[in-house]
Amino acid sequence: MRARLGATLLVLSALALAGCSSSPASEAPDTMPTADAVPDGSCAYVEAAGGVREVTAPPAEAEVSGDVAAVLQTSAGDIPMTLTADRTPCTVGSFVSLAEQGYYDDAPCHRLTTEGIFVLQCGDPSGTGRGGPGYRYADELDGSETYPAGTVAMANAGPDTNGSQFFLVYEDTPLPPSYTVFGQLDEAGLAVVREVAAAGTDSGAGDGAPATPVTITGVSLG
């Protein structure tokens, strides 16, 4: 299943954002530990179906902190962003680990939404919106999340089903606070995503593959 953004805009699932489609949903995790089962300050990465590439799950103890500079190197141009490891250590830890293992290399951004919600969804090397890294982990939310232009957030298939798919918000987007916000695009990165969005989807519909194909060729960190 594809990760879903939420029932907004046909679920906009748009992100479902994990699987961007009418309802981007990804395979639900096999199991997810309760909060009591996870030591304070630790991250629980639980094995789940749908692994697209063989990777090693990140360590339970976050190895990143502070603001982490990252650049999505894509066929449409470089997309610089700043990741907030202190606020979302498990999410940023996972993203950094996957990037260092080359998981995102040659991975398409498979979904663009241009009505209701305004996002470009990426992070599934299979390009189907159903793939993930073979593990899932919990949300990092406090209920105050909003999704203005420039937001970088995780797509999911429901509570605590984060994997590898994420979305880039290019215009202010109304969504419930259900998607972990773990970074921010800089102005140059936002401009690249807006240029992709301006070309619309390949079908002309408000939700579909971008007309301008976008492939992540690599991720540079620091």
Describe the model.
By secondary structure, the chain is α+β, with helices and mostly antiparallel strands. It has one domain (46-54, 65-221): Beta Barrel (Cyclophilin). It is built from two helices and twelve strands. The longest helix is centred in the middle third of the chain and has 12 residues, at 89-100. It is globular and about 45 Å long. The relative contact order is 0.24.
Provide keyphrases for this structure.
11% helix; 222 residues; two-stranded antiparallel sheet; 2 helices; alpha+beta; Cyclophilin; single chain; ten-stranded antiparallel β-sheet
Secondary-structure blueprint of this entry?
Layout: E1 46-47, E2 67-74, E3 77-84, H1 89-100, E4 107-108, E5 111-113, E6 119-122, E7 135-136, E8 151-154, E9 166-169, E10 181-185, H2 187-198, E11 207-208, E12 215-221
Antiparallel strand pairs: 1-7, 2-3, 2-12, 3-10, 4-12, 5-6, 5-11, 6-9, 8-9, 8-10
Brief digest:
By secondary structure, the protein is of the alpha+beta class. It has helices at about 90-100, 185-200, and strands at about 45, 65-75, 75-85, 105-110, 110-115, 120, 135, 150-155, 165-170, 180-185, 205-210, 215-220.
